[in-house]
Amino acid sequence: MEGEVDDEDGTFTNISLADDSVDRGSAALRSRNHNDYFIMNCDLDVDVENQVELEEKTRLINQVLELQHTLEDLSARVDAVKEENLKLKSENQVLGQYIENLMSASSVFQTTDTKGKRK
């Protein structure tokens, strides 16, 4: 009911029932004498709240982006380490085969018949 008369000083009191999501529901009881001050005060409060929310969102977005970049860097590092690991395994196999071939070709590492030498 808009336009009710206040019995004390004869001024009108307005109650806004509109759902205004931009003002974050700041529908308020407004007196005609204090209308401008109250609206300005509410707007400042909403602006401060919006500014704080915006700063928090910006901080969180920056943090998420930083974490994404860190994850990308770590994934790239893991891939590089996997490749290096495969390369080293392959080199180890080649070296192991080379050592085995040297040992089999050398008379020092040949098995001897210990029974035949003792007789």
UniProtKB/TrEMBL annotation:
Keywords: Coiled coil, Cytoplasm, Golgi apparatus, Membrane
InterPro entries for the chain: SCOC (IPR019357)
Membrane topology of the entry: Peripheral membrane protein
Coiled-coil region(s): 57-91
Subcellular location(s) of the protein: Cytoplasm, Cytosol; Golgi apparatus membrane; Golgi apparatus, trans-Golgi network
Cellular component GO terms, alphabetical: cytosol; Golgi membrane; trans-Golgi network
Function: Positive regulator of amino acid starvation-induced autophagy.
Family affiliation: Belongs to the SCOC family.
The protein's name in its UniProt record: Short coiled-coil protein B isoform X1
Species per Swiss-Prot/TrEMBL record: Clupea harengus
Gene: LOC105908426
